[in-house]
Each structure stands twice: as C-alpha cells, then as structure tokens.
Amino acid sequence: MSKETWRFIDSGNCSPSFNMALDEALLDWHSEGKIPPTIRFYGWDPATLSVGYFQKVEKEINMEAVREHGLGFVRRPTGGRGVLHDEELTYSVIVSEEHPEMPKTVTEAYRVISEGILKGFQALGLEAYFAVPKTAEEREGLKNPRSAVCFDAPSWYELVVEGRKVAGSAQTRQKGVILQHGSILLDLDEDKLFSLFKYPSDRVKERMQRAFKNKAVAMNEISSERITMDMAKDAFKKGFEEGLDINLEPYVLSEEETQYVENLAKTRYESDEWNFKR
C-alpha cells in the first residue's frame, strides 16, 4: 500500500492575524476540495497571546500587561484557554471529518492526530505519553476549567512528559473539516505568562503559579540536550509522517493564496469586533 501524501507548509514567523487567517483559509480550501489534507508549522512575530473562541477578554485578560510586554493579541477560531505563543513550535492539522482514518468523536480524532506529536517527542528523546483524566474531579475540570491559562488544565489525550503537560491543543470542526492546532513548548517564561491574566487577588495568582510548575513544562527544561527550533521542526515533521502513516510534501502559498489570507487577516483577525466581542 502506498502512503497518502498530505501537504506540508512551514510558514515561518507570521503576524497573529495572518496565522489565524491562514488556518481558517486552509480549512475553507480543504472543504472546497481545492487542497489535500495539510499540516502546517508556524511561529509568531511578535510573540502573542491568543485566547479561545469563547473566552471573555474583559473578565479574564490583563490587556495592559499584554501591551507592556509588546505582545500581539488575537482570538482563535478554536476553543480552549489563553496561550502565550513565544518560544514554541505551533502546528495545525487540517483534514476532512470523513477521512477514513479519522474517528467520528472529537476526543478520538484528537488522539489520532496527536499521535504525530507523540512520535515527535519520542524522536527528541523525551518519554511522552497520553494522559487520560482519571478522577471525577479531573474530568469535571475539563468541563468547567477554573483557570484561563491553557497549560494549567488537564485534557483528554494531552501529551505529558514526567507527568507534566508539554503540548496544548485545540480543535474545531467546520464545513465538514477538522482543524486542530496547538503549541509545542521549547521554553517558557512563567512570570510573563501569569502576568497576562486577571486574578481575584495576588495570593490566588501566586498559588496558581506555584501549582502550574507541577502541571506544565517546556522541552528544554527536561531535555538532556538543548532543542533548537530546527531540531523540533525536523522531529515533529517526521513524527507526523510516522504517527499518521503519511508522506508530507512541502508547499509554498501562491501570490493569490497569500493575498486571500492577508485580506481575511485584515477584515477578521485584526478587527476589535472579532477579538473583543465576547
């Protein structure tokens, strides 16, 4: 059996609005049958705080701190909580819900797609595995997350190393297409991260930040050798090929496609109506 070929786009560091617009455009193009299933790697310029589709910015986010740190800000089309995109490899996977290898449930599809990320961590010498929330309290936490911080909450089939979360992902399904994107942390500035959210008191903030250290970790904190972005890209590209049993064929957007994405970025993802509407 020959392997299926998917498209691979490494779009490098882009603006927050362009990043979200390109993910949306890929979903649209795939739903229209214009492109095959696609995996994309990207970074952020400037470093950015992204919030989930349903988050209330006014209630949860300290926009003053976002501006003080010179960060970009954007609302994702996917759910989940706030993510600081800084020293990380961000990925997205675009594939039809009807793809023969994609399970029907969100949770199981998440596990299948994340198999590629699991293989990437293993290629870098990290003993990653899928965590499944075991206790009733953990499962309840999935439905009603107490924290606005993405890496602070347990999730079905989250990837962990030594008991701590190393990648956070979110998924949406629109027009018959699955879009899953997520962050793979190389390094993490916890103080900066925790300055970006609102808390009932300083004591609560300190308590949450202390607890966070036991829940999340960046790769370079636990790797025996320093992992560079190039090493990460190489490992996770191979990881997706192995985990999903596919070949990845590099692709560069045409001028026309780039123009389409830039227009979408401007009209939707740079608008206050989109970013602050909830």
UniProtKB/TrEMBL annotation:
Pathway: Protein modification; protein lipoylation via endogenous pathway; protein N(6)-(lipoyl)lysine from octanoyl-[acyl-carrier-protein]
Catalysed reactions, as listed in the record: octanoyl-[ACP] + L-lysyl-[protein] = N(6)-octanoyl-L-lysyl-[protein] + holo-[ACP] + H(+)
SUPFAM superfamilies tied to this protein: Class II aaRS and biotin synthetases
Family assignment from sequence similarity: Belongs to the octanoyltransferase LipM family.
Entry protein name: Octanoyltransferase LipM
PANTHER family in alphabetical order: OCTANOYL-[GCVH]:PROTEIN N-OCTANOYLTRANSFERASE, OCTANOYLTRANSFERASE LIPM-RELATED
Additional free-text comment from the UniProt record: In the reaction, the free carboxyl group of octanoic acid is attached via an amide linkage to the epsilon-amino group of a specific lysine residue of lipoyl domains of lipoate-dependent enzymes. The reaction proceeds via an octanoyl-thioester enzyme intermediate.
Cited HAMAP family: LipM
CDD domains (UniProt xref): LplA
Catalytic activity, EC: 2.3.1.181
Pfam family, one: LplA-B_cat
Assembly and interaction partners: Monomer.
Site residues, Lowers pKa of active site Cys: K165
InterPro entries, A to Z: aa-tRNA-synth_II/BPL/LPL, BPL_LPL_catalytic, LipM, Octanoyltrans_LipM/LipL
Domain BPL/LPL catalytic: 33-248
GO-annotated molecular function: ligase activity; lipoyl(octanoyl) transferase activity
Active site per database record: C150 (acyl-thioester intermediate)
Keywords: Acyltransferase, Ligase, Transferase
Naturally occurring in which organism (per UniProt): [Bacillus] enclensis
GO biological process, one term: lipoate biosynthetic process
Function: Catalyzes the transfer of endogenously produced octanoic acid from octanoyl-acyl-carrier-protein onto the lipoyl domain of GcvH, an intermediate carrier during protein lipoylation.
